[in-house]
Amino acid sequence: MKLQKVLSALVAVVMVALLIVVTSASSNAQEPTQEQQKQNDTFEDQTNLDTQLYLIVATNQSVVDEKLPTSLDSVVKQLRATLPFKNYRLAATLLNRVKNEGRLDLSWIGGPLAPMGTANSQTSPTFSSFKIRGVRLAKNAKGQTVVHMAGFNFGARFPIQMMSVASANAFPVINYENTGLQTDISMRESEPVIVGTLNVGPSGDALILVVSAKRTLR
């Protein structure tokens, strides 16, 4: 009788142990391990975006080549309907790759982006910078993929001649004036949008910032 009780107790202990093992295995199968979660996070972080910043000069002066990329047709149509300028020309295109939830920071030296009125200021370089504090892919209320750009920052230093040249041997005085724009924006993926306009130079020209972003295929 005692032996039967002992065997019954052992069977009960074994059944409880098996139940614990099965429950633990089922839980482990449903929840990813720390290593699996790390691999998933690494895969998501590998998403990259190609960003394009277009610098368009709006002017009432004649333009040698006012042909703009076909990808900007909708932008140009909007500009012609809202701004009182006769011509538009593409001053620069910047293409950069940035990781999803990453940042972008670049600066460069180039020629004048817009006419400055004098020959000396025309040959002086322009110092420009373009920064984005954070780029992130998301979904809007309609389920469309959008790109958030936090801390969008464009700045430029334009050369301005402050005095006339009295003689051929005199050195002109060139001062650099700062202009720029800071904002947070969202846009649909691959769709170029107008970020803002900046008035530059004594001629009344304007510098228009257009940006777009899309996921890379590789």
Structure description:
There is one protein chain. The protein is an alpha+beta fold and 218 residues long. The protein folds into 2 domains: 2-31; 43-215, no CATH class. 26% of the residues lie in helices and 45% in strands. The protein is built from 4 helices and 8 strands. It has helices spanning 2-30, 34-45, 73-82, 119-123, and strands spanning 48-59, 87-99, 102-110, 126-139, 145-161, 174-188, 193-200, 205-215. The model has no long low-confidence stretch (mean pLDDT 80).
Describe the protein's topology.
Layout: H1 2-30, H2 34-45, E1 48-59, H3 73-82, E2 87-99, E3 102-110, H4 119-123, E4 126-139, E5 145-161, E6 174-188, E7 193-200, E8 205-215
Antiparallel strand pairs: 1-2, 1-8, 3-4, 4-5, 5-6, 7-8
Describe this structure in a few short sentences:
Helices cover 26% and strands 45% of the residues.
Feature tags:
single chain, 218 residues, alpha+beta, 2 domains, four-stranded antiparallel beta sheet, 26% helix, 45% strand
Basic shape = elongated
Describe the sheet with the most strands: 4 strands, antiparallel
Report the C-alpha radius of gyration, rounded. Answer: 31 Å
Mean pLDDT, all residues: 80
Beta-strand content bin:
over 45%
Percent helix range: 25-40%
Number of helices: 4
Give the helices and strands as they follow along the chain: HHEHEEHEEEEE
Q: What class would the helix/strand composition place it in?
A: alpha+beta
Say what oligomer this is.
single chain
Number of domains: 2
Query: Strand tally, please?
Result: 8
> Which strand order spans the largest sheet, edge to edge or round the barrel?
2-1-8-7
Stretches with pLDDT under 50, minimum 5 residues: none
Distance, first to last CA: 74 Å
